[in-house]
Design a protein that fits this description.
This protein has a single domain (about 5-135), classed as 2,3-Dihydroxybiphenyl 1,2-Dioxygenase, domain 1. The protein is built from 4 helices and 9 strands. The chain has helices spanning about 5, 30-40, 85-95, 125-130; strands at about 10-25, 45, 50-55, 65-70, 75-80, 95-100, 105-110, 115-120, 135. Strands 1, 2, 3, 4, 5, 6, 7, 8 and 9 form a 9-stranded mixed beta sheet that branches. A hairpin with a 2-residue loop joins strand 6 and strand 7.
């Protein structure tokens, strides 16, 4: 039986989806080349999303990518969920502060100062079902 069959009304699920290495736009290609070599992971631009250069199989079960940004270099996490509003509320309750929104993605600053993006499910549904945690 899949986890989705066990989910109770009023609950939602989420999982860590990606670790993104944010690099200033003019340094993103060099950053991708470095991380590709350092991790032994082929770097490939994401079709339809030119700001992302995926680092294939760098982190089994997770997406790893260099993201070109108009900001300072940093690392941020993406959490995917079947209910963006509920997951955002859960993380706000834990002390995060929403600092932005991009499309359906909510951008949060969490205690310690790091950024976390909450986004709708992007991974294969079977992987999400197998790895997501259920939350009230």
């Amino acid at each position: 039986m899949s986890l989705s069959a066990d989910i109770l009304p009023g609950m939602h699920r989420s999982r860590l989806y990606a670790i993104l290495i944010d690099a200033p736009r003019d340094e993103a290609d060099a950053a991708a080349a470095f991380w590709s070599a350092a991790l032994g992971a082929p770097a490939r631009p994401e079709p339809g999303a030119p700001q992302f250069i995926a680092l294939h199989d760098a982190l089994p079960g997770l997406v790893a990518a260099v993201q070109s940004v108009d900001d300072a270099p940093r690392i941020h996490l993406d959490i995917e969920t079947d209910d963006v509003v509920a997951e955002t509320g859960r993380l706000l309750g834990l002390g995060a502060v929403q600092v932005g929104q991009w499309q359906e993605c909510r951008v949060l600053r969490v205690p310690g100062g790091h950024l976390v993006c909450v986004l709708p499910v992007e991974s294969d549904p079977a992987l999400f079902d197998a790895q997501a945690r259920a939350w009230p």
